[in-house]
Amino acid sequence: MEELFAYVKPAMAVVPVSKxxxxxxxxxxxxxxxxxxxxLFLVGTIxxxxxxxxxxxxxxxxGGVYTQKATTAALTDFGTTGASKVYILDVPINSAKPHMKxxxxxxxxxxxxxxxxxxxxxxxxxxxxNLATFAAQYVRT
Length: 141
Fold this sequence. Notes:
Blueprint: E1 8-19, E2 29-30, E3 36-46, E4 52-59, E5 67-68, E6 74-78, E7 85-92, E8 99-106, E9 111-120
Antiparallel strand pairs: 1-9, 2-8, 3-7, 3-9, 4-5, 4-6, 4-8
């Protein structure tokens, strides 16, 4: 049986947090060498009046200026009916701007959220199996 993490590299995109009235605190994801990124945006409790929306931005360097991706993929503003769900933004990676961040805002009430990016499509090159930079624990039997 094949190992999933030989083909998919997970990366933290948003450390789980409860926020209100502020921008998403995203972490830069380096997609260098990969063809696509699937951002799994996890939403927990959304307080009354809360809401969140986000999209993917890109940059040539991790500390550079992040601009909106050319794709129209975005999670539109969803409120309390969008609580306790997983949303997925699957986008191509621009090799000239492989560094990505989720960009968005939380509404005036608290939104519990976090995100993981799954990088894939390395044209047959195996991903680094060292998951220590992402997972607190990884057990494979």
